[in-house]
Design brief:
The chain is mainly α and 253 residues long. The chain is 74% helix and 0% strand. Pathway: Cofactor biosynthesis; adenosylcobalamin biosynthesis; adenosylcobalamin from cob(II)yrinate a,c-diamide: step 7/7.
């Protein structure tokens, strides 16, 4: 339970308070990232279900997206922008890492962030015109599976940034494979619950595959350019996987 609370404290703006803290908890709490993602997606789903009763689908989609961004404080969106500012151009590894630390946003980051928000809003608007079960399932799955994708990148790569100046030093240490196993377990439980509620299993399997593909592509990009992952790279991974899952849910198949 302490690890769940640490994950909530790290990934969201919820006012979680702990009596004490041990650095290793931050490393181990990654196993519960999909659970936190399901919570964030659940909030977005609740907002969409309520909003679509009063406003058009595109308004409900924007409100749902705004709710999830507010709950996380734009944590992953910030990582996406920083990653594209750093890796969008052709610069050496050291220069790319320096750009990632710069709080200012450049053209590559602005383009990536803008397109990500527009694409997710458009996909959610499509879902808002369909039965709400599918829309809610897509929000839950996209946020849970996307965070599992980030954990997968952490497990499969070493830390590629400057560990001495990392904001969350425990996350620069090797993440045990068992943590990824637990993260996948949370995703499996969510998938089973959604299937029990009537969501089509093939659609869920396609969503899982899409998240896995996004994680694989981001892993290769980060490995080639930085030699490993960074916190910003993990944020970009989450965003890519989230979009991939929403694309799987909205595909006309």
């Amino acid at each position: 339970m302490k690890l769940v609370l640490v994950a909530l404290q790290f990934l969201t703006r919820l006012p979680v308070r702990l009596d004490r803290f041990e650095p290793r908890w931050l490393n181990d709490c990654v196993r519960h990232f999909p659970l936190v993602g399901a919570l964030v997606g659940g909030v977005g789903a609740a907002v969409m279900v309520a909003a679509v009763q009063f406003w058009p689908a595109w308004v409900a989609a924007l409100l749902a997206l705004a709710a999830t961004v507010a709950l996380t404080g734009g944590f992953h969106e910030d990582g996406l922008a920083d990653t594209f500012d750093a890796l969008g151009g052709v610069v050496p590894r050291e220069k790319a890492l320096a750009i990632m630390k710069d709080s200012r946003i450049g053209s590559y980051g602005a383009l990536a962030l803008g397109l990500s928000l527009l694409l997710r809003a458009a996909l959610l608007a499509v879902l808002a015109t369909r039965p709400m079960l599918g829309a809610a399932a897509a929000l839950l799955a996209s946020h849970a599976f996307a965070r599992a994708a980030a954990v997968g990148v952490m497990v499969s790569l070493p830390y590629g940034g400057d560990a001495e100046h990392a904001k969350a030093k425990p996350l620069t240490l090797a993440v045990a494979p068992r943590n990824f196993g637990v993260a996948l377990g949370w995703c499996a439980l969510l998938a089973l619950a959604l299937v029990a509620c009537g969501v089509h299993l093939p659609r869920l399997l396609a969503a899982m595959a899409a998240a896995g593909l996004a994680a694989l592509l981001m892993r290769q990009w980060l490995k080639r350019r930085l030699g490993g992952y960074t916190g910003d790279g993990l944020g970009a991974t989450e965003q890519f996987a989230e979009i991939a899952v929403l694309l799987a849910f909205t595909a006309a198949v």
